[in-house]
């Protein structure tokens, strides 16, 4: 584990100790050097990258974030990074091209060899967010009627340029996926036995399906390389375990950001401009401000009720807080279940039923406590209102919070968008309506 930091390198660059910077970076593993460059300011990063030897630069560039790669290309120009760009895997290359201006992206594509241009075009042909966009079209496949000797020779001949060779797709002569074979099994078996004897049923993904769900399946089942096929089961590429981990981590970061009512920053916090941070937050604040008007309108509608029983106002924060938290808990749980394929949009009735029963159980427990405390401090009437409201709010909030992610998925919207911010605002407004309706019925006001 290196003790070298981005701040130390930036300080050395400021002091003009460029030889020290180049020497220190050259002694690091490419992943460690990339992590340090990612954390540096754009100008210092460009200087540090120039100090790397050509071969080191190619490897470090491969491990940089796509945002840092795009910034380097903008700073250095396409000619200086064309070699590093050519050495990227096609899926990483496609991700980088998404970050670049169109004219720069075209220039880089033109710098590729015809073969690399073709493999990149395969990945770019799928929509963003699909597993087809994250797969690698560079793989080695074998045929079931090959013997193990022939299969190993094929892997040796073509494996150098493949993304991985440890899990080998087995296809028929129309390139339709039949199964997968382990390189270990092929190497250790009798060379004269057929590949078919070592072929296992494949766990695969369709190229058009969301990358997050395919990646989660890959991780959950510890698949080294998941085959990716088209609608006719023809093999297109593979999603490797490390790429799947990147997809899941990026999706988790985005969900956490949206649950906190903001967009994810593409650069480290200290490097992000004031405008970038503001843009990541302000849109959500506008949405929440507009949504919060509903709460104000509800309070205005029941203003007369509050005037007759001022004590009711004291419990508003408690009830809205319980409703918002209950709804957010349900939404987060179901969003996670969607991501891991534990539920689908067709399970909406089952999810609603389960969350309703959970809401009733939690509401009953909390409602009893609310009834006792409010009844002792004020009177039985207030206690009854609080107890019934908590029971009702928990039931509604859990049910709505549980089905909203499913509704979002069905209309092709990120379920995280419907998590904490919107659920909380919805529960605030509906919770107040329930609260004052019960109060008017019980207290006859």
TrEMBL record:
Q: Which residues form the CBS domain?
A: 135-197, 198-254
Entry's family note? Belongs to the SLC41A transporter family.
Organism superkingdom: Bacteria
Under InterPro entries, the record lists: CBS_dom, CBS_dom_sf, Mg_transptr_MgtE_intracell_dom, MgtE_N_sf, MgtE_transporter, SLC41_membr_dom, SLC41_membr_dom_sf
Q: What does this protein do?
A: Acts as a magnesium transporter.
Question: SUPFAM superfamilies given for it?
Answer: CBS-domain pair, MgtE membrane domain-like, MgtE N-terminal domain-like
Q: Which organism is it from?
A: Gordonia sihwensis NBRC 108236
Q: What is this protein called?
A: Magnesium transporter MgtE
